[in-house]
Amino acid sequence: MEEESMEEEGGGEAMMDDQNHNNWGSGGYGRHLLGERLLPPAGPPRPAGPEHNGAGLRGCEPGAAAGRAGAAGAIAAINISASTSKFLMNVITIEDYKSTYWPKLDSAIDQLLTQSPGDYIPISYEQIYSCVYKCVCQQHSEQMYSDLIKKITNHLERVSKELQASPPDLYIERFNVALGQYMGALQSIVPLFIYMNKFYIETKLNRDLKDDLIKLFTEHVAEKHIYNLMPLLLEAQSTPFQITPSTMANIVKGLYTLRPEWVQMAPALFSKFIPNILPPAVESELQEYAAQDQKLQRELIQNGFTRGDQSRKRAGEELTYNGSSACASSRGYR
Q: Angle at Cα 310 formed by Cα 308 and Cα 316, nearest 5°?
């Protein structure tokens, strides 16, 4: 059974207990039921000496010994019955899951999805990890996975609507923030649900949680905005430093991760940040590559990047002279 394999694998972890802190580790619960504290307590040493004759010796008669043994057995049976009842009371029903366990997970996911880079999130990762583990053990994986997907889908739909309302001059930057925030949240969400991923998603659905969550962003955000975003990226590319190079790099690399075939929409743009996108260079096009380099230099000068002194001029001339070889190298020309 899945629970047995999970207990064997994680038997040494402190969080593998039920909500009343009964040990669920390897053999721990068995020791709780059958340990020394459930054995009949050992009586005092049998006294010796003449002062214990008479009434004191009646306690050693067969009838008295049988009575003590029966009482001790009854006590042990009562203890076992009480412990078993306590264990059965700790079963997590679907009502318990909905009222107690999922609200804790829901709150933690909210904080992770909306945090800014570098923020401190006041949640107990151990507590959340333990909640997920217990729910998996109690056969609530399917419900928990469904709730997680619904939760994140609703969040991404809100993000998409906010992007649609963004003005063009803020559109690229806000898309970059949304993409970075979501990918950063996955770095915490996926490990917290590692048991659900291993014993339900991978085993029964033959998928992976991280891939599923990335696909959600692709479907509910990126696909809805790619045709508005790409023209703005191309315009920003033709106007150097309209947006920061790091923002452009993050978005282009992110889009390539979400859906590599989007490269076909703007191969020249993607080739600046993703290696081996363009076909290999050919010798007959070296002059064209050099002309592209010269155009780039003119644009840099127009935006305030002047050569200044003679040494910079010589450096610029050398760059122009070697531009064709540098461009060819980026295309894989040898």
A: 80
State how far Cα 87 lies from the chain centre. 31
Q: Does pLDDT of 37 surpass 80?
A: no
DSSP sequence for 215-239: HHHIIIIIHHHHHHHHHHHHHHHHS
Residue the block writes with tokens 């619960």? 29
Grouping H, G, I as helix, E, B as strand and the rest as coil, residue 23 is: strand
Q: Among the listed ranges 55-69, 92-106, 248-262, which one has the minimum average pLDDT value?
A: 55-69
Average pLDDT, the chain: 73
Burial of 29: CB neighbours in 10 Å, binned 0-12, 13-18, 19+: middle
Does position 323 have pLDDT exceeding 60, yes or no?
Answer: no
Q: How many CB atoms lie within 10 A of CB 108?
A: 20
Q: Both tokens of residue 301?
A: 């000068």
pLDDT tens-place string over residues 155-200: 999 999 999 999 988 999 999 999 999 999 999 999 999 999 999 9
Q: Structure tokens of 162?
A: 């906010």
Q: Report the predicted TM-score, pTM, of the whole model to 2 decimal places.
A: 0.61
Facing residues of 55 across strands?
A: none
Phi, psi of 89, rounded to the nearest 5 degrees: -70, -20
Q: What is the dihedral of CA 320, 321, 324, 330, to 10 degrees?
A: -70
Specify whether the CB–CB gap between 315 and 264 falls below 8 A.
Answer: no
What is the amino acid identity at position 208?
D
44: left (phi over 0), alpha (psi -120 to 50) or beta: beta
Closest CA to 135 of 176, 105, 174, 167: 105
